[in-house]
Automatic annotation (TrEMBL):
<protein>
    <recommendedName>
        <fullName>2-dehydropantoate 2-reductase</fullName>
        <ecNumber>1.1.1.169</ecNumber>
    </recommendedName>
</protein>
<feature type="domain" description="Ketopantoate reductase C-terminal">
    <location>
        <begin position="180"/>
        <end position="300"/>
    </location>
</feature>
<keyword id="KW-0566">Pantothenate biosynthesis</keyword>
<dbReference type="InterPro" id="IPR013328">
    <property type="entry name" value="6PGD_dom2"/>
</dbReference>
<dbReference type="InterPro" id="IPR008927">
    <property type="entry name" value="6-PGluconate_DH-like_C_sf"/>
</dbReference>
<comment type="pathway">
    <text>Cofactor biosynthesis; (R)-pantothenate biosynthesis; (R)-pantoate from 3-methyl-2-oxobutanoate: step 2/2.</text>
</comment>
<dbReference type="InterPro" id="IPR036291">
    <property type="entry name" value="NAD(P)-bd_dom_sf"/>
</dbReference>
<dbReference type="InterPro" id="IPR051402">
    <property type="entry name" value="KPR-Related"/>
</dbReference>
<keyword id="KW-0521">NADP</keyword>
<dbReference type="Pfam" id="PF08546">
    <property type="entry name" value="ApbA_C"/>
</dbReference>
<dbReference type="InterPro" id="IPR003710">
    <property type="entry name" value="ApbA"/>
</dbReference>
<dbReference type="InterPro" id="IPR013332">
    <property type="entry name" value="KPR_N"/>
</dbReference>
<dbReference type="Pfam" id="PF02558">
    <property type="entry name" value="ApbA"/>
</dbReference>
<feature type="domain" description="Ketopantoate reductase N-terminal">
    <location>
        <begin position="3"/>
        <end position="152"/>
    </location>
</feature>
<comment type="similarity">
    <text>Belongs to the ketopantoate reductase family.</text>
</comment>
<keyword id="KW-0560">Oxidoreductase</keyword>
<comment type="function">
    <text>Catalyzes the NADPH-dependent reduction of ketopantoate into pantoic acid.</text>
</comment>
Length: 305
């Protein structure tokens, strides 16, 4: 497959490198020192599942330099989604499909404002990875999975082709016949972990050991479940409790990318996480006091230091 990775950070860099090593024709769209490092020295993956060094990396500054591709991975920060959607119009016009692996339940709605709905494949990723230094992606933990599917539940040729490419690359992969539910289920956990680690300013181990913050994490996730159910998503009633049990299996030092961004003084994805839950809750008459308070408390930091 010819794949463009739009956003070569932890998610895009890791999965793009694995696919390139397995024979896919991958082009990374990146910026700054990370782009220059990939051009000059290649891309290196450090992972407990095996390190990888790509010496000859095709890396460009803008999607317009990519040329004709079969598929585009969107892995940029959420505030860039609208600009990315606009930039993809000519690429999609040449036949490319688009799959976003961002942590938002409204990402594909934003993309579909500018792109044909039939060009969009629903996607979810599960991985803890980040840029360790320019040209180096550091993967922590053993999880590295992509799940995707057509919104109508069909097993299309493009979905099967991507599945086969991922399998060949050694990526854990799943084709879902209900990807909207998968997106919402991941959203439950991402919102909870992001909100509580950022509000407490500590990793998950500290949160879970304290009875009050543990209960707060559960309440934050329960609100997301309630909003999703009100919007017609078939999330089980006990899903938040199950996710809390999942968090207990995490390393106590694990945290969220939003907490990392907060600590570094970077811009936060807050408006698309707890902020979005609170806004959607108001639209469907579901109370979301925990998410609203966390969104308000963190709002002075939303644009970075």
């Amino acid at each position: 497959m010819r794949i463009a990775i739009l956003g070569a950070g932890g998610v895009g860099g890791y999965f793009g490198a694995r696919l390139a090593a397995a024979g896919c024709e991958v082009t990374f769209v990146a910026r700054g020192r990370h782009l220059e490092a990939m051009r000059n020295h290649g891309l290196r993956i450090e992972s407990p599942l095996g390190n990888l060094a790509l010496e000859n990396v095709k890396a460009v500054r803008d999607i317009s330099e990519v040329g004709k591709v079969d598929l585009v991975f969107v892995t940029v920060k959420l505030w860039d989604t609208e600009d990315v959607a606009k930039s993809l119009v000519p690429v999609v016009a040449q036949g490319a499909a688009v799959v976003s692996f961002q942590n938002s339940v409204q990402k594909d709605e934003v993309l579909s404002k500018y792109l044909p709905k039939e060009s969009i494949v629903a996607g979810v990723c599960y991985i803890a990875a980040a840029i360790g230094e320019p040209g180096v992606i550091v993967h922590t933990g053993m999880q590295q999975k992509l799940a995707f599917g057509e919104y109508d539940g069909t097993r299309s040729a493009r979905v099967v082709e991507l599945y086969d490419a991922c399998s060949k690359a050694g990526i854990d992969v799943e084709i879902s016949d209900d990807p909207r539910r998968l997106i919402w289920e991941k959203f439950v956990f991402v919102v909870g972990l992001s909100a509580i680690t950022s509000a407490v300013r500590k990793p998950v181990g500290v949160v879970l050991e304290n009875p009050k913050t543990r209960k707060l994490l559960l309440d934050v996730m329960r609100e997301v479940v309630a909003v999703g159910q009100a919007k017609g998503v078939a999330i089980p009633d006990d899903f938040a409790q199950r996710q809390l049990s999942l968090a207990d299996a995490f390393s106590p030092t694990a945290t969220s990318s939003m907490h990392n961004d907060l600590e570094r003084g970077n811009r936060l994805e807050l408006p698309w996480l707890s902020g979005d839950v609170a806004d959607m809750g108001a639209q469907v008459n579901v109370p979301t006091p925990c998410n609203r308070v966390i969104a308000d408390i963190l709002s002075p930091y939303a644009l970075g230091a």
